[in-house]
Each structure stands twice: as C-alpha cells, then as structure tokens.
Design brief:
- The chain is mainly β.
- The N terminus is likely disordered.
- The longest helix is centred in the first third of the chain and has 18 residues.
- It is built from six helices and 29 strands.
- The two termini are 18 Å apart.
- It has a single domain, classed as Capsule assembly protein Wzi (Porin).
- The strands form five sheets. The protein has an 18-stranded antiparallel β-barrel.
- Strand 26 and strand 27 form a beta hairpin.
C-alpha cells in the first residue's frame, strides 16, 4: 500500500502524554484486515521463523495480527531464506505451510493486488473440535463483595485448571466438549467482518450459571491505507511473555471495544524514523457489570519499536475508570480520565492505571538467543510524587522476563525456553470493582496477585511438521493481597496457608496437513497433557490436591474458499 498522506496522532496518557507521529494512513486504496485467532498455529510458525532468523519486521508484542500481515511476513521469510542460500528444511516446510494457510493474501501481495481485493465471503474459515478432561478445583480470588465497596479488591475464578489463555471458555470437572467456528467476509476492498463462536462445556449435563454459547473474536474492520479501525470483541495479547502476558492476555473472554492500529509495521517520519519499525494499538471499551462499579470504561495503548535488528522495546498503558456510582464528573472529567492527563480524585470518580515497559534483545552469534524483560506498574503516585505521579503508574510493580534459545541444536529442531513472573500483591487488584477482570476472569497473568511462577520448556521438532514440548513449572502464592491483608478471616473463614505447586505439561502440535481427498483442506492437531501437585490450594492450610488436564483438538480449514465477486 502506498500512503498518500501522513498525520500526527497523540498517544494520550502514556508517561506524561508522550507525543508520537503515528500513521493516519488514509491512502488511495486499502485492504481487508481480518485478525487471526490467538490459538492458530500461524503464530507458532511465525515465532519459529523469527527464531531461526528469517524475519526482520515481526513485532510479536502486539497480537493478534491480520491475515494479510501474516502473508507479508511469509514472503519476507521466503525472501530472506533465499538470500541466505542455505539448506534449512524446517524453514522451507513452515513457509510452505503458511502459504497453504494464507493462499488469497499471499496471492494479493505477489500480484500487487493487496489494495484492490475482491468482494468475498468465506463462511467457514476454520472449524475446531476439542475434547477436554479436567480434574481438580480451580484457583479463586474472592476478596470483593458488591455490598461492601470499600473492602473490594478482586473477584475472579480460574476457567480451566492448567489451561490458561483459552478465552475464558467455560468448562467443568470431568469431560468437556468444545466446538469453535470462524468465518469472515469483505466488501468494497476496505470493509471486513469476521467472527468466531463457540459452544463449550459438558454435553451430558448442564452447569448452573454457565453460558455454553460464546462469541470470541468478532468484529467489523475498516482499513484506510495502513490504518485499521475496528469495533467488536477482539482477542488481545500485549508484551513479550510466552506463557502469560502481564498487561493484556486472552485468559478472559474478549471485551467489546473500539480499536485503532496499523496493519503493517512502518517507519515514523522525521527523526522518529530512527526508532525503527513501529507498531501500535489503541482501544476504548467497557467491562462487565459483575462488580460494585458496574460497567466501567477501559482504554489503553501499546507502542512497539525495533530500532535495530537485535533490539526491540515498547510501552503499554491502560486505565480503568467510571462505572455506576463512579461517574460524578463532567465531559472534561471523562476526557481527562480517558487520556490519563487528569485522573481527578476518588470523590468524583476513582481510576486504576497500568503502565509498563518491555525490552527484547537478540544475540545471533549465540544461536539466535532472545532475552526479554517486562516491567508493569499499577495505580499511580499522584500523592507521593505530584505532578508526575499521575503519569507514572508504578506504585505496585510486577516483573516478567526470560530467554528463548531457538537453536539449542544448530539445525533449529530443538529449542529451550525459560520464563519467570513476580507478581506484586496489588497486581490486578483495586477497590470497589476497578480490578482487571472481565466476566470474573483475569485479563492479564493467569496466576493473579502476589504470585511467583517459573517455567522451563524444552521443545523438539520430531520431523518437519510435528513438535513436542515439555514444560516444568513451579508456583507460589501467599494470601496477603488486596483487602485480605486487613480482613483475612472475613473473606477466608479457615486458616490461611501459602500455596505451593509444581507440575509438568506436555504439548504436541502437528502443523496443518493438506488432505488431498478433500480438495486441499488443512487439518491441524493440538494436544496437551498436564499434571500439578498443589499444597494449600486457595490458601486452605494443610490441604493437598492433584490437578490433571488432558486436551486434544482437531481443527479443519476447508479447501473451498467461499464466494468472490470481482470489483
């Protein structure tokens, strides 16, 4: 796409209202921005190509990405592999797989037709059937009570033990069956609609209070040059974490919001071009009503830069404000809170902010080693450090970091990953309902407040299509967080203990395999087996439990591409 003009955009509320030149991107032509579900194998494939050293402009700290961006990255990896003039069977296999998954978008780019796609409708992009067996009680964070607003801290429940970041799909102990169906369409060359629905839970019995039908990533996107404006319930993943995300994750079901982001990375104008490849996302949405301040507003921004081939960095910011009984402010007060420039005071309308920074370093000489670190602060220091404190939400600081060694063996068939998280006692918590949950699911790291987690994972490609990964993890979680510090026995009528757990998880992935008898349809297999031993689960002193998860998933992408009408 060729931009016709550029404009300025203000990333409001990010560390004192930092101004950036962002893309306004209104161009003479546009394309369809259809976002890829976060459980798609496309992300595993792009991560592998990035780790092998064949991607230069993949900024994976902002997900999901669009299908056309994944196609661009596929062609970038293919070109870099050809220039490298080396034999790399795994990279060749993954590129062929990506081409099979993104045939229309790769074709547009190869024939210079990205800016003039036909009107099209694909009612079945992917169908996924999943069987899940779960045993063991879920973790709970229950220190919020709607009838005692001054004591509230957090109210959340783990969706499925040992299966975080699954869009908060409802399951129950025992056997569960999950069906997901996604499709999309585009009209006029710039307006696209996409949706994914699911049916989840035990087929043989009903569960009180659980809705089986869920809408996941669903929205309408209008693209103008390289700028995409969307409205809907889009999945989100912000930051460098692999096992969990500090700021925004898909541990909960996606919340409705308006979003603005660039489709492809770009270079900013003037001296800001030295910041390198740039991606951003901004959103404005509303949360649920299952809290004292029901239906609060939420908005956020993330900026990601790659000034050097071996260095990436970025910033995140989000603010939670308003809601019932918490909106005694004017329109200017609303705008001040939404931008973060003037958050007012609790008497007129309380707020809760998050802000963070992430860094990633690449070491090509050390077999493409990646080292990353993220820091996230919550709430602000307005009283402690005026006036700068309102822009620096670093009152409660959490940390996440680790390394990824893509070429533990030189051929890239074996990789090693280490990741840790230190979550502050006030992580995700706040009084009177301004905590970071949606529909009683944590929106960030699935471990919740006052937790420590360490993961070590070894992965091995068994051949050029099948990968097996083994993860060993250890966690701790003391009970002293939020209002439980002051009122522990009011919320927990039993003796409190410090939770410890250790376990192992095994993940299997078979990349999409063409099915010749079904006209080029693709079938993908995922499986997971995990076991965890927990002492003092949910802080019940002197208790012991074992949690087990078995999951097998088969997804199917038909060879039929739907209907197309040339423009």
């Amino acid at each position: 796409m060729i931009p016709a003009r550029r404009g300025r955009a203000r990333a409001a509320g990010l560390f004192g209202g930092m101004l950036i030149f962002a893309l306004s991107g209104a161009a003479v032509a546009s394309t369809y921005a259809v976002y890829i579900p976060l459980d798609s194998s496309i992300y595993n494939e792009l991560e592998t190509l990035n780790g092998l050293g064949y991607l230069e402009t993949y900024l994976d700290e902002i997900k999901p990405i669009s299908r056309v961006e994944a196609a661009r990255l596929t062609l970038e990896a293919e070109g870099n592999l050809e220039q490298a003039r080396r034999s790399d069977p795994l990279a060749h296999s993954i590129i062929r797989t990506l081409r099979a998954q993104l045939p229309e978008e790769v074709g547009w780019l190869e024939h210079d037709a990205e800016d003039n796609p036909p009107t099209m409708f694909r009612p079945m992009q992917r169908v996924e059937a999943q069987y899940l067996f779960s045993r063991g009680d879920p973790r709970q964070w229950r220190t919020s009570q709607t009838n005692t607003p001054d004591l509230g801290a957090i109210n959340a429940t783990e969706a499925t033990p040992l299966l975080p970041n699954n869009d908060g799909l409802p399951t129950a102990p025992g056997s569960n069956e999950i069906l997901r169906w996604s499709g999309w369409g585009g009209v006029g060359g710039f307006l696209a609609g996409y949706g994914e629905g699911s049916i989840a839970g035990p087929m043989t019995r009903s569960i009180k209070g659980i809705e089986r039908l869920q809408l996941l990533g669903t929205g309408v996107v209008a693209s103008f040059g390289n700028l995409a404006l969307s409205a809907g319930t889009e999945e989100m993943w912000w930051g460098t974490g692999h096992f969990d995300a500090l700021s925004q994750s898909d541990n909960s079901s996606p919340f409705p919001a308006l979003r603005v982001q660039n489709i492809h990375p770009l270079l900013l104008p003037w001296i800001f071009r030295y910041l390198g490849q740039f991606r951003f996302q901004m959103f404005f949405g509303q949360l649920d009503g299952e809290r004292y301040y029901s239906h609060p507003w939420i908005d956020g921004q993330i900026l990601s830069f790659k000034p050097l081939p071996t260095f990436e960095f970025g910033f995140t910011h989000a603010i939670d404000f308003g809601g019932r009984y918490n909106n005694n402010y004017s329109m200017l007060g609303f705008l001040g809170r939404a931008t973060g420039f003037h958050t007012g005071n609790p008497a007129n309308g309380n707020t809760n902010s998050r802000g963070g920074v992430f860094l990633k370093f690449y070491f090509p000489s050390l077999r493409n080693l990646e080292v990353y670190q993220e820091i996230l602060g919550e709430d602000n220091l307005t009283k402690e450090l005026p006036p700068a404190g309102r822009f620096l939400p670093f009152l409660a600081v959490s940390y996440q970091g680790g390394f990824y060694l893509p070429r533990l063996t030189r051929d890239g068939m074996t990789d090693l990953r280490f990741e840790y998280a230190l979550l502050e006692p006030n992580y995700s918590t706040h009084s009177v309902g301004l905590y970071w949950t949606y529909e009683n699911q944590l929106m960030g790291d699935a471990m919740g407040p006052n937790a420590t987690e360490v993961d070590i994972q070894l992965g091995r490609w068994l051949d050029l299509r099948d990968k097996l990964s083994a993860d060993i993890f250890y966690t701790e979680q003391p009970p002293g967080y939020g209002s439980a510090v002051a009122y522990p026995y009011e919320f927990y009528p039993y003796p409190l203990g410090k939770e410890h757990s250790g376990g192992a998880a095994f993940d299997f992935l078979r990349l999409p395999l063409p099915m010749r008898k079904l006209d080029g349809a693709l079938a993908t297999i995922r499986a997971r087996a995990a076991v965890e031993y927990v002492r003092d689960l949910n802080y019940q002193a002197n208790s012991q439990s074992v949690r087990i998860l078995l999951m097998c998933s088969l997804s199917f992408t038909p060879g039929w591409t739907g209907w197309q009408w040339p423009r």
